[in-house]
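From the methods appendix. Each design record in this collection lists the tokenized structure first, followed by the designed amino acid sequence. Records were kept in a plain field format so they could be parsed without special tools. The example shown here is representative of the layout used throughout.

RECORD:
FOLD TOKENS (169 positions):
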């Protein structure tokens, strides 16, 4: 399907090309920029009226921990420095399971998409006896939501004796 996203309130192209008349999108590809007051040269199937919307490229979030959306307002961790915050949350995270990974991934993706993000890199480092398929869950939820993602395994490189933490099990 080819859609003309017509006459946005504002549009940012990142260059000097005029797209004030909108853009024509075929599938997932922008195929034409429309100057102000012009009609598309490209055939289109549908018009989307963008008069009250701003058109910008998708944003990129380079560092996320999806599962942490579940403990964002955990009272014992509020207003703490990094290591005190981690000490308060590690015991909670140790009890999370695959259902928590599913819910937290859905929540994180919804928040990202609502803020204009279309590509994310998640640094997942929560692996315990309750979570065997965390990355598989994240892949499935990213596909379901239509979010582009780079999924990595995060890590804590300092042991407890050097000020770090033991692995979550």
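DESIGN:
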């Amino acid at each position: 399907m080819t859609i003309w996203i017509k006459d946005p309130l504002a549009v940012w192209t990142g260059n000097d090309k005029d797209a004030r008349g909108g853009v024509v999108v075929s599938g997932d590809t922008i195929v034409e920029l429309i100057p102000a007051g012009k009609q598309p040269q490209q055939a289109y199937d549908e018009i989307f009226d963008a008069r009250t919307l701003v058109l910008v490229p998708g944003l990129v979030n380079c560092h996320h921990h999806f599962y942490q959306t579940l403990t964002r307002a955990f009272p014992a961790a509020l207003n703490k420095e990094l290591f005190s915050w981690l000490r308060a949350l590690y015991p909670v995270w140790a009890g999370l399971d695959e259902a928590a990974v599913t819910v937290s991934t859905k929540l994180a993706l919804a928040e990202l998409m609502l803020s204009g993000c279309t590509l994310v890199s998640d640094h997942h480092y929560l692996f315990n006896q309750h979570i065997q398929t965390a990355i598989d869950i994240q892949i499935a939820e990213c596909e379901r939501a239509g979010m582009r993602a780079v999924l990595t395994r995060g890590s804590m490189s300092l042991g407890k004796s050097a000020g770090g933490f033991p692995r979550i099990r």
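APPENDIX NOTE: The beta strands are 2-6, 10-11, 22-26, 29-34, 46-49, 54-55, 59-64, 117-124, 148-153.
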